[in-house]
Specification:
With about 130 residues, the chain is an all-alpha fold. The chain has one domain (about 5-129). It has three helices and no strands. The radius of gyration is 29 Å and the shape is rod-shaped. It starts with 8 loop residues before the first helix and ends with a helix.
Length: about 130
């Protein structure tokens, strides 16, 4: 009983288990790398949203203040403030929508890892038969 064609079932199963362990360790490393990449994307999006939000708040504060002053010459000051608030709500909604669109490009599950794990499971099932 020499050669690979004459190996015992125990040796074949041991070999399969060892291969599956190596494959799963490689998949875990791949998943970690993909998750790290996606976390970096989220960090960049969040940073942009935060900076944009702060700049928007400061700019809108000045614009609204000048708008309220200008409108208060025509209408009551409380109506002028209400109009300014409505405008700022619309602009804020537009910025939030843009940020949410960017977040849609972030994958929750790492697609390459999921595909590789599915392929490995099929290979394992085929090898066990």
């Amino acid at each position: 009983m020499t050669g690979d064609s004459q190996r015992s079932i125990a040796a074949v199963l041991t070999n399969i288990v060892g291969n599956v362990q190596q494959i799963m360790q490689a998949e875990i490393r791949l998943a970690k790398a993909e998750i790290r990449q996606e976390a970096d994307k989220v960090k960049r999006c969040a940073t942009l949203l935060l900076i944009g939000g702060v700049a928007l708040v400061l700019a809108l504060g000045m614009v609204l203040l000048s708008g309220v002053y200008a409108l208060s010459m025509v209408v009551a000051p409380w109506i002028a403030a209400l109009i300014g608030g409505a405008v700022s709500a619309g602009v804020g909604a537009a910025v939030i929508t843009a940020g949410l669109k960017q977040l849609q490009h972030v994958a929750i599950l790492p697609p390459r890892t999921v595909a590789a794990i599915e392929e490995n499971l099929q290979w394992t099932k085929a090898s066990a038969k």
